[in-house]
Automatic annotation (TrEMBL):
Keywords: Fatty acid metabolism, Hydrolase, Lipid metabolism, Serine esterase
Listed name of the protein: Acyl-protein thioesterase 1
UniProt similarity note: Belongs to the AB hydrolase superfamily. AB hydrolase 2 family.
PANTHER family: LYSOPHOSPHOLIPASE-LIKE PROTEIN 1 (PTHR10655:SF17), LYSOPHOSPHOLIPASE-RELATED (PTHR10655)
Ranges for domain Phospholipase/carboxylesterase/thioesterase: 9-202
Gene Ontology molecular-function annotations: carboxylic ester hydrolase activity; palmitoyl-(protein) hydrolase activity
Role, per record: Hydrolyzes fatty acids from S-acylated cysteine residues in proteins with a strong preference for palmitoylated G-alpha proteins over other acyl substrates. Mediates the deacylation of G-alpha proteins such as GPA1 in vivo, but has weak or no activity toward palmitoylated Ras proteins. Has weak lysophospholipase activity in vitro; however such activity may not exist in vivo.
C-alpha cells in the first residue's frame, strides 16, 4: 500500500514525492501517531506531498508492540533488534522501489521507535541473521522524539558514514520520566563524537517564550541560517516541563510547529 501511494505521487501529481516513515514507541500501536500526523503534523498544504507510513513493531508487548525484546538475555535482545532492522530496511527499500529517492525519505520515531530510527538510519555493517548485512542509507532526514542510541557498543561498531550528511530533528521534554532527558543528551553527545563535523543546534522552549513567540534561544552556529537551509546537523529542541509523550498543553502545539518547519526544510516541495 505504501509503495502504491508513493508511486501515485510520483506519476500523477507532478510533485516531488517524499515519504515520512514514523515508528511508534514500546507497548504502543501505530494508530495514535497515524491520527496525529494526519490531523496535525502533516495537515498543511506545504506538506501535502509527503506520504505517511506508520508500521507496527513485530513483537507483542502489553497492549501494543515492541521493536525488540526488552529484558531478554543479551543475545536475544540483539537478535530481535537485528530482525527489526532487517524489516525496516525492507520498508525503506519499498519506498525506493516505488520511485522515492533516498534523500526524499524521512525516518522518524518516538521513544523506542526513535532508537530504532537511529539504528536503521546510521548503521551499515552490523550482521543480521543468515549473514545478511545491514544496508547503508542516505536519507533526507531523521526525526527522534524522546530518543536514545540503542545498544551503544554495536551502534559504534556499525556506524555509517552517512551520519555526517543527514539532518536530525531531536525533540525531548526536560522532565521526561521514561527516557530521561540526560539520556537523550548523552545520545546526542555520542552522535557528535562519532561525527565531530555534525553541528549541534540547541533550542530551549519555555511556555513564556512560546506565548510571546520568541523561541530563539540558539546555541551553536551563527545567525539563523539553519532555519531556512538544509544542512547536516542535529537540531535539538528542549521542551521545558514536558514529560514523556503528549501533554495536551503548549508543548504539543510547539512541537507540531517545529516539526513542520523542519520537514519543509529537509523535504521541500
Amino acid at each position: 500500500m505504501a509503495a502504491t501511494t508513493a508511486s501515485k505521487l510520483v506519476n500523477d501529481t507532478g510533485k516531488r514525492a517524499a515519504t515520512l516513515i514514523f515508528l511508534h514507541g514500546l507497548g504502543d500501536t501505530p494508530s495514535g501517531w497515524r491520527q496525529s500526523f494526519t490531523a496535525k503534523y502533516l495537515n498543511d498544504p506545504s506538506l501535502s506531498h509527503i506520504t505517511l507510513v506508520t508500521p507496527s513493531a513485530p513483537r507483542r508487548y502489553g497492549p501494543g508492540y515492541s521493536w525488540y525484546h526488552i529484558g531478554a538475555p543479551d543475545n536475544e535482545s540483539k537478535t530481535s533488534l537485528n530482525a527489526a532492522l532487517k524489516m525496516l530496511d525492507a520498508l525503506i527499500q519499498e519506498q525506493v522501489d516505488a520511485g522515492v529517492p533516498q534523500d526524499r525519505i524521512v525516518l522518524g520515531g518516538f521513544s523506542q521507535g526513535a532508537g530504532m530510527t537511529l539504528a536503521t538510519a546510521f548503521t551499515a555493517s552490523q550482521e543480521l541473521e543468515a549473514q545478511v548485512q545491514k544496508k547503508e542509507w542516505k536519507l533526507g532526514g531523521v526525526m527522534a522524539l524522546a530518543g536514545y542510541v540503542p545498544r551503544e557498543d554495536e551502534f559504534r561498531k556499525a556506524i555509517s558514514p552517512t551520519l555526517k550528511d543527514t539532518p536530525i530533528f531531536w525533540g525531548h521534554g526536560n522532565v521526561d520520566s521514561v527516557v530521561k532527558y540526560r539520556v537523550g543528551e548523552a545520545s546526542i553527545d555520542k552522535l557528535h563524537d562519532l561525527s565531530p563535523s555534525l553541528n549541534v543546534y540547541k533550542v530551549k522552549h519555555t511556555e513564556g517564550d512560546w506565548q510571546a513567540d520568541t523561541d530563539k534561544r540558539i546555541e551553536g552556529g551563527t545567525g539563523e541560517a539553519w532555519k531556512s537551509e538544509k544542512h547536516a546537523w542535529i537540531e535539538r529542541h528542549e521542551y521545558d516541563d514536558m514529560d514523556h509523550g503528549p501533554t495536551y498543553r503548549w508543548h504539543d502545539q510547539a512541537m507540531e510547529k517545529h516539526m513542520r518547519e523542519w520537514l519543509r526544510r529537509v523535504v521541500p516541495v
